[in-house]
Amino acid sequence: MTSRRGWLLALSLVCRIAAAADPPAPPPAVVVIRAGTLIDGVSGQAKTNQTIVIRGNRIESVGTGAAPAGAKVIDLSGATVLPGMIDAHTHVFLQGEEPSEGGYDVQLLKHPLAYRAARATVAVRRALEQGFTTIRDVETEGAGYGDVGIKQAIEEGHIPGPRMFVSTRAISTTGGYNLEGYAPEITVPKGAQLVDGPVEARKATREQLENGADWIKVYMTHRSWVDAAGNLQSQPTLTVEELKAIVDEAHGWGKKVACHAYSNPGMKRALDGGCDSIEHGLELDDAAVAQMVKQGTWLCATLSPYYKYWRQEGTPLGKLDRKRVEVHGPSFRRALKAGVKIAFGTDVGGFSWNEPIAQEFPYMVQFGMTPMQAIQSATSRAAEMLGMKGQLGVLAPGALADVVAVSGDPLKDVKVLEKVTFVMKDGKVFREPASR
Ligand SMILES: [Zn+2]
Q1: Ligand 1 centre and the CA of 137: distance in Å?
Q2: pTM recorded for the entire structure
Q3: What tens digit of pLDDT does each residue of 185-195 get?
């Protein structure tokens, strides 16, 4: 026994010595991407025949120099190479509100959280496959802090997915969010955390920040309809005082506040309360646009979903669907012209994750952006909104190595952004062209 124990002791000592004598970690691998055309996310001009040198998870250089000896070369000389794209308005815990599948309510009433998390796992993979290497996910719709868990699983490498900025439960008021329309005697779950009064608003913000929210999402308007005069109306939710408590608390933690807002008076309250981004912004009048410019408020318009699921023409809901797009495009154009900062966002999850996220680009171009501006809204501009300027959304020295490629020319036709053939996130290749 003694000799066996002695042998084991000796072995463990050898192991410890071996561990102590381990050579230092090898230098990070060097990868070179040859880009036929390169859109760097910031510059207004594309460049041709560029070489991107990536060391580990960072871009070391971009230019026309020779590749370092021994580097792995990825040949994208027949493609257009761009920074990994950013969708600043997603819902990984929604799967499209298909009425035939029970619509929105069934997800909260009948689906176990594990089922919703499993589908969210597929959703984040879908985002990455399509070249969206970063998302700002603006609330879980009744799935609590599930987004924090999905984000953790991605960061630890258990599942593939984009970098996530999460906003957890979102905040609205009593009478200000779904589920609705059930017997008042029944307690049904709500898709957001409902608060009344500045004290509750501040407390909910603290809870969400404590539990991992990167952003706070607030619903400043709820129901919407077309009034007798044919104008879009939307029900305001939080008061300016309630919103100010949220914004003050979030800003104190170094975090920002995204406000869902369709039209006045909720829109005015969102801006007066100091929101950092307006989500959707269906009806932005000149005063709202001027206030956004003055305050540096971002617009995340999510144009594409409003062209879906139109209800029957002539009915109140059918009128609403058509009215929303009637005012939305001109609002976007007005904001763009006035110099409002615009970040790309789609509301995917509100529609199926099997649809292309990049379908938003043609609408942005239709309402006044150049293709280059639309691309920048999904790269450097969105990165700036997320506080990641220079780190994300740009192909330049020092940036994180998030790189995608498409086979056509997106400056001629933004629709080619729907067909991403190469995806690298954080220096690791996730998707390569089939022919390679
Ligand atoms: Zn949304």
Answers
A1: 9
A2: 0.93
A3: 999 999 999 99
